Amino acid sequence: MATRRMISKEVIMTDDFLDLPPTTKVLYFFLNLEADDDGFVGNPKTVMRLTGATKEDMKLLIEGKYVLLFNTGVVVITDWAEHNSIRKDRKKDTRFTKEMQQIALVEGGKYQWLSDVQPNDNQTTTIDIPNGCIGEDRRGKDSIGEERVVEVDREQSPTPPTLNQDFVNLYKSFEQETGKALSPIQMQELQYMLEDFSADVIHEALREAVGQGKANFAYIQAILKRWKQDNLLTVELIRNNKAAREAKKQQNNSKPEPQTREEWLANWSEENPF
């Protein structure tokens, strides 16, 4: 399964999406991050718990048609094809085949309920129907129960993958230190950071930025870039390098200031009289 996930500006840079509460937008991003290669998320309740999202956040995503919710509790990202195009030789087909049978990928790259795709005689619609049939237990538009929004039927759903805990921990640390939630673009950049650096190194960059009073995302990226150029790719190397620089700085500060010619002559005469 591919590990890198993309987010399309065509979806998130719209007035409707930007008007969503910050917690709802964060939930949407994390659902995209956790989705399999077909856009399905089998553990939305776990994602909600880790991100601090509420049932209201999930309902807003459902009502805005950003995700579709199945009776099993599984969700699928409606614009998955817009966000991600995965090569066939790298793609792993979803295990949620029962849910896949209830939707269609329509023209424009959106998932829709198969029962909603009903072109009239004067209209043609391009439809990609996996396995060619519809399930009987699709989730109705108006049947979103408070207690069923994030329920997962464990007997019908396979064991979901584990959410990247390093990403979650880093996100929370960034949010705590900077005082604001990361934007979807910054969260995507954070995902790229984890491909180049360990979570410990990124935490170290965050600590250094905070210590210098510059706890902003761009400055942290600059720190990481400098460390990579200097081949400092572990916390031990970074701290040893910092200690060496501090020692050299103290050594330079302990050297006596240069004397003027007159001061030198006076000292020389006192110490070496004729």
Name a few traits of the molecule:
Arc Repressor Mutant, subunit A, 2 domains, mainly alpha, DnaD, three-stranded antiparallel β-sheet, 274 residues, 47% helix, elongated
Which value, in Å, is the CA radius of gyration? Answer: 28 Å
What percent of residues are in strands?
5-15%
> What is the string of helix and strand elements?
HHHEHHEEHHEEEHHHHHH
Please list the strands of the largest sheet in the order they lie side by side: 1-3-2
Structural class: mainly alpha
Helix content: 40-55%
Overall pLDDT level: 77
Span between N and C termini?
87 Å
Number of domains: 2
Could you tell me the number of beta strands? 6
Number of helices: 13
State the shape.
elongated
What low-confidence regions span 5 or more consecutive residues with pLDDT below 50?
A: 120-162
Largest sheet: 3 strands, antiparallel
Pfam families: DnaB_2
Organism: Streptococcus pluranimalium
Region (Disordered): 244-274
Family: Belongs to the DnaB/DnaD family.
